[in-house]
Amino acid sequence: MKIHDISLSLDKNTVIYPGNPVMIVESYKSIPKDPTNLSKITFGSHTGTHIDAPKHAFSDMAGIDGVSLEKCVGKCRVLDMLDVKEKMEIRDFERCGIESGERILVKTKNSERGFGKFHDDSVYLDGDAADYLADKGIILFGIDSLSIKKRGDEDARPHTSLLKNGIVIFEGLDLSKVEPGEYEFIGLALKFTDLDGAPARAILISKD
Ligand SMILES: [Zn+2]
């Protein structure tokens, strides 16, 4: 069994989506002045690898503590989207044979470029494709970028179509070191009460 950590590291250098709070880590208590080391952390709810709760797009829907744990653990497929130039469209998913109940992660050229800084031209999910995935009945969708939608785009369906259909969204996955294929997925966020999202630790498990 091999565990692949697909989470971004969290520190003051973590890439932050434009307009989101910067991450601050401060010493609150420290040895030898204090008996233990303890830190104070300030960060946005969509920092690093994170889950978008339905509440991110719909004020009256579930927060992060209402996201199904069953959906966040189990078989998943990492799709090869490395040749997609701008956005993932219906035809990109049609060739993959998406089935109901699948957890889908997409490995795009975003992973190859890395997460050292924010890029405005990240590969994103097209609105029609979001509708298509919702119709197919997938239960989880994860992307190797800080947002599944194009920044500033009026088409909100990449968030709304997935979230209103109970599809868990993971953003900020680092898939640079994993090959497309089948894995066991575990991705769990901190249990903040009724919050719109939260950082998560995500891993893939393969048999070799
Ligand atoms: Zn988000």
From TrEMBL:
Source organism of this protein record: Candidatus Spechtbacteria bacterium RIFCSPHIGHO2_01_FULL_43_30
Subunit structure comment from the entry: Homodimer.
Record function comment: Catalyzes the hydrolysis of N-formyl-L-kynurenine to L-kynurenine, the second step in the kynurenine pathway of tryptophan degradation.
Enzyme Commission number, as recorded: 3.5.1.9
GO molecular function: arylformamidase activity; metal ion binding
Pathway noted in the entry: Amino-acid degradation; L-tryptophan degradation via kynurenine pathway; L-kynurenine from L-tryptophan: step 2/2
Keywords carried by this UniProt record: Hydrolase, Metal-binding, Tryptophan catabolism, Zinc
GO BP terms: L-tryptophan catabolic process to kynurenine
Enzyme class (EC, first level): hydrolase
Entries under InterPro entries matching the protein: KFase/CYL, KFase_sf
Required co-factors: Zn(2+)
Range of residues in the leader sequence: none
Reactions it catalyzes: N-formyl-L-kynurenine + H2O = L-kynurenine + formate + H(+)
UniProt-recorded name of the protein: Kynurenine formamidase
